[in-house]
Amino acid sequence: MYRSAVKTLLIAPAARHRFSHLRTLLINSSRFSTVAASNHQSPNDECKPPQVQYAGSSSSAPSASSSSSESASSSASSAAEEAPRHEGQSPRQRRHRAEYQDEQARVLQASLHHVARLGWTETAMIAGAREVGVSPSIVGSFPRREAALVEFFMDDCLQRLIDRIDSGEELRNLIPSERISKLVKIRLEMQAPYISKWPQALSIQAQPLNVPTSFKQRAMLVDEIWHAVGDEASDIDWYVKRTILGGIYSSTEVYMLTDSSPDFGDTWTFLDSRVKDAFDLKKTIQEAQYLAEAVGAGIGSSLQGFMKKAFPVFSSLLHLFSLISSSASCFSGTNMDFDEKQAVVCDNGSGLVKAGFAGDDAPCVVFPSVIGWPRNKHAMIGIGQKEMYLGDEAQARRGVLRLSYPINHGMVRDWEAMERLWQHTFEKELRVSIEERPVLLTEPPLNPKFNKEKMVEIMFEAFEIPATYVAIQAVLSLYASGRTTGIVMDSGEGVTHVVPIYEGYALPHAIQRLDLAGRDLTDYLTKILTEEGYVFTTSADREIVKDIKEQTTYVAMDFEKELATSRESLELDKQYELPDGQVITIGTGRFKCPEILFDPSKVGIESCGVHDIVLKSIRRCDMDIRRDMYGNVVLSGGTTMVPGLADRLAKELSSLAPPGVRVRVVAPPERKYSVWIGGSILASLSTFEQMWIKKEEYMESGSSIVHMKCF
């Protein structure tokens, strides 16, 4: 009974009727009604548009006689009764409600011709009115202005899709998954002419007043597609299928917004892949829970976060499914024995510590992974000398401190310093009582067993936390990009890793490591600038060079060609102003610096470039998944923020890949923090609760429990 009631609420307003004029459904849904003109009109009344009243409004038309005004909810039969009242009036004055609505539809249809240029705006509607020879003042008859235009377009597209479904020609001989892909593609292709303006349409749909109609239209679309496929489910599968298809449609729609491939080829490949996965029942249920809970948690920087902002009500449906799943987990006995407080997510890198709370879309604090001790006991007299300085304080006083980096090339080398850094993170930066919160930590690929055990031991013994989990950094980066299968190139401050991942599991035999990353790029740029006559010797100068690297460098698509161009002209040079006001010119160092990622021999490292180690990693994977790896190369880490890196990597890999294999390099804009974002997503899922290592488990099994639960 409950399912029937919910289904009625969701679909009854959008039942699968074959409307002969569905594109006028919006206008016929009692939103608009005209108020007949009074018999007592001035000579100029003929030039005025009929007054319009919003359905349900108590306001009346400002006429001299109230008896001459019609209610906003007048029935069609009342039009005949009005006939005597309109005798002697011109045809323009005698038009009844249905005729006026047809005129509104003509205006909206004509307005679509101007959307690509003017956007989903009142200006486009005015242009549409002029195109069909109607006074622009008719725009005032639409209480929600541009929302009416977007909703009209959605209804029009659905009607056209229904017409193509009814023809049956395009779906004949297609299996269910192919039918779904075909119908979603047909529907999204209708938005292609307006793709540059579609984000504006999404924002209009997301406005509170417009959400109910927006959701109804999307529910109709999803239901139509499933019925065209032949689905007649009436049990829980009804919810699962529509939830999954809604997620596929929305994620493909968002993907399409940033697709620059010819004819949206990459979008259709993405769509086919998502539909293929959805037809695997196990993957379907997992993805439904992941999508529902991630949206419900409001992960703004991920794809799910975008969907939550764009489609709040649809997200509510997904969250409803999440709650159903969570309820089932409770009945099965899965429950945490600590307070439901936000988990702390801590990503410790060679250069930076990123920390914050699960469910947030960005880390709360980011500071250097460094600890400093005074070199001389009396070196800092008068400024309140401390025993040690951590993070930003140590960085600011590095000239008079002996610095220690607990993490070197991705691995923890000094556990005492690491514990102090964690303490500083929890107490001084996040300012939380860590004894009450679970903590998710990150680790590099191929982290030694001792290191994993030591992390867990410190968390439980030193900080007495209720639960913890240790996740591989590259896997979290992949989650942040909305994928569970792909190959991650993670390059931070101290080390570069290439990690192939299949269905959320890293493949250790194919992982590649390169001890060359951001710190090496900074050192090499310092060397280049020194050779050009600039002097950077102190530790403070090093930070300046690091900023120069981040502000001016780029990866050349063709290094030799770029070098030749720089010799012939100065167009590639860039000015940089130092803190003291001196302006220096950065020349060939702009592209020579990051080139060492592709040719480490330039700095004396006997190793392959990043493109070669990515290729080597893919070739060590099973033949059946290599194509998925080539098509999902995901960049992560601060060093990958160098402009041009993604394009150059794609070019190099394409030249090395087998013929016919498409290479796609994904460079998320937030990739500098993608490890942390992936951890935030993971730790916020209710289905993740069973994965935590609880203190009772640690007390019973010891630190070796980490190998059984974290892999």
List keywords for this structure.
21 strands, Tetracycline Repressor, domain 2, 711 residues, disordered N terminus, six-stranded mixed β-sheet, alpha+beta
Explain what you see.
- Helices cover 47% and strands 12% of the residues.
- With 711 residues, it is α+β, with helices and mostly antiparallel strands.
- Among the domains are: 37-141, no CATH class; 146-331, Tetracycline Repressor, domain 2 (Orthogonal Bundle).
- Strands 5-4-3-11-12-21 form a six-stranded mixed sheet, with helices on both faces. Strands 13, 14, 15, 16, 19 and 20 form a six-stranded mixed sheet that branches. It has a three-stranded antiparallel sheet with strand order 7-6-8.
- Helix 12 packs across helix 16 and helix 21 packs across helix 22 (539-552).
- The radius of gyration is 31 Å and the shape is globular.
- The model is unreliable at 1-100 and 290-339 (pLDDT under 50).
Distance between the termini: 43 Å
| Computed CA radius of gyration, to the nearest angstrom | 31 Å
Q: Estimate the strand proportion.
A: 5-15%
Shape: globular
The SS-based structural class is alpha+beta
How many beta-strand runs?
A: 21
Q: Biggest β-sheet: count, sense, barrel?
A: 6 strands, mixed
Helix residue percentage: 40-55%
CATH class of one domain equals Mainly Alpha
Please list the strands of the largest sheet in the order they lie side by side: 5-4-3-11-12-21
Number of helices: 30
Q: Could you tell me the CATH topology label of one domain.
A: Tetracycline Repressor, domain 2
* Uncertain regions spanning at least 5 consecutive residues: 1-100, 290-339
CATH architecture of one domain: Orthogonal Bundle
Main location: cytoplasm
Catalytic activity: ATP + H2O = ADP + phosphate + H(+)
Keywords: ATP-binding, Cytoplasm, Cytoskeleton, Hydrolase, Lipid-binding, Mitochondrion, Nucleotide-binding, Transit peptide, Ubiquinone biosynthesis
Family: Belongs to the actin family. Belongs to the COQ9 family.
